[in-house]
Each structure stands twice: as structure tokens, then as C-alpha cells.
Write a structure and sequence with these properties.
Layout: E1 4-5, E2 9-19, E3 22-36, E4 48-55, E5 57-60, E6 66-69, H1 79-82, H2 93-99, H3 107-120, E7 125-126, E8 130-133, E9 136-139, E10 144-147, E11 156-159, H4 165-168, E12 173-181, E13 187-188, H5 190-193, H6 196-210, H7 223-226, E14 233-234
Antiparallel strand pairs: 1-3, 2-3, 2-12, 3-4, 3-13, 4-14, 5-6, 6-10, 7-12, 8-9, 10-11
């Protein structure tokens, strides 16, 4: 069997930053497509696949810098694929059994019911700061970065979302992150802040490092070597 595809959905991701000159916002509209491999798919039957189209959120700050909330988190490369679905609880075993023809729990039905809830969720939803993953408390916010020189990919720096003042000074903090279903067109401001030539230069730097020592090159131990265009632009 070829598996199953679900209707795509779009959500607007808004990042609000308090600054000494008032509230600043950045937003991006992201589309998520979800599919599940069929039971006879090799090598992983039933595997869930997600794919996004969209951009990182760019927030312009009063000091002339731009803060980027990436499509990934510190621990999850597909953060933007999953953050909206995590706002919706999975159905309980009792709820699944109640809808199952034989009264038994069914994994396919469980996922179908969860997708129904995801597609039905409306209104602004505050993205929690933390999330429990298999009993472990992990970050549920994206990775934040800035560029010391917006023209130079090598100047990228990680920004602690819990301590913006360390990067930008007193009076800066993340107020909240909001996700909300929308029918707006996919898009954002990152592509206007970081253009095609910027990412070409980044790819050239990475390729040069790869050709000079492969992944053992110190370049790949630094943030600039761990990130790529995919963390800023999803297509």
C-alpha cells in the first residue's frame, strides 16, 4: 500500500519581543504536509513523514539588528513541522476504542483522530516554553540566532531566548510565541533579510570546509557549520 496523506494546513508563527522602545513582532506563515507510510513500506511501515514550506521568523530590533527564530530548535531539526501539532493532545485509548469498529485500540485510528484535532484547532495558541518528551523536560521554542554582520554568514551567533539582554542589552526579552491557523499565503521576512547570494556564500564556506578535512574540520564544530539554509527557509 502507498500509505496515506492528510490535508495540508498553515499556521502563522508570531514572535513577540519586548524592547526598550516597545513591543516588536515578527511573523511567518508555514505550511505543513503530513503523510504516513503504508503497512508494507520498506523499511519503516507506518512511519510518519512531515514536510514544511515557510521561513524562519525575523524580528527587527531597535538596535538595527535582526533576531531570527529558526525552523529548528536546539534538539529538533524539524521543530517547525511539529510545534503546532504539539498544541493538540493525542486522543486517549478510551476515545480511540469508542470509535473503533471492534472496540479495540487502533494505531491508525489514533493518528487519524489526532490529525482531525490538529486540523480543527483555531485561534491564537501560546507556544509553551517547555515540553515533556518521554519524561524529559526539553525546550519547546525554536533556536534563536543573530548575525553580527548581516552580510557575513560566519558571524552567526546563538541567542539565549531566556536571556536576550546578554545579546542586545537591558530591556530585551521574549514576551511570547504564538501559533495560529491561517489561510494566508506562505511567507515571511527572512528571505528579504538574507538573500540568495547570502546563502550561496554560506554554502561555499561549508563546501570548502568539507573538502578540507570533511566533518572533522573545526568549522563544523561551530554554529556556522551546524546550520544551513534549511534552518531559515523551508521549501
Amino acid at each position: 500500500m502507498l500509505g496515506k496523506s492528510y490535508p495540508p494546513y498553515r499556521y502563522r508563527l508570531t514572535v513577540e519581543i519586548d524592547t526598550p522602545e516597545g513591543l516588536r513582532r515578527g511573523l511567518s506563515v508555514i505550511e505543513v504536509r503530513t503523510s504516513v507510510a503504508g503497512p508494507y513500506t520498506i523499511p519503516n511501515p507506518g512511519q510518519v513523514f512531515t514536510r514544511i514550506k515557510g521561513q524562519a521568523v525575523a524580528v527587527d530590533l531597535p538596535n538595527g539588528q535582526t533576531l531570527f527564530a529558526l525552523l529548528r530548535s536546539d534538539w529538533e531539526s524539524q521543530w517547525a513541522d511539529h510545534v503546532y501539532s504539539r498544541l493538540v493532545p493525542r486522543p486517549s485509548q478510551e476515545e480511540v476504542k469508542a470509535r473503533s469498529p471492534d472496540g479495540k485500540w487502533n494505531g491508525d485510528l489514533d493518528f487519524d483522530m489526532w490529525m482531525e484535532r490538529i486540523l480543527a484547532l483555531r485561534g491564537p495558541q501560546t507556544v509553551p516554553r517547555r515540553w515533556s518528551l518521554m519524561g524529559k523536560d526539553v525546550s519547546n521554542w525554536p533556536m534563536f540566532v543573530r548575525f553580527r554582520d548581516i552580510r557575513d554568514p560566519a558571524s552567526v551567533e546563538r541567542v539565549d531566548p531566556d536571556d536576550l539582554k546578554a545579546a542586545f542589552g537591558k530591556g530585551y526579552r521574549v514576551r511570547r510565541i504564538i501559533a495560529e491557523r491561517t489561510e494566508d499565503e506562505v511567507g515571511g521576512q527572512t528571505s528579504t533579510r538574507l538573500n540568495k547570494s547570502f546563502f550561496q556564500a554560506w554554502a561555499t564556506q561549508s563546501k570548502a570546509a568539507l573538502n578540507n578535512g570533511a566533518l572533522d574540520n573545526p568549522y563544523f564544530q561551530k554554529l556556522k557549520g551546524k546550520l544551513s539554509r534549511n534552518d531559515f527557509i523551508g521549501e
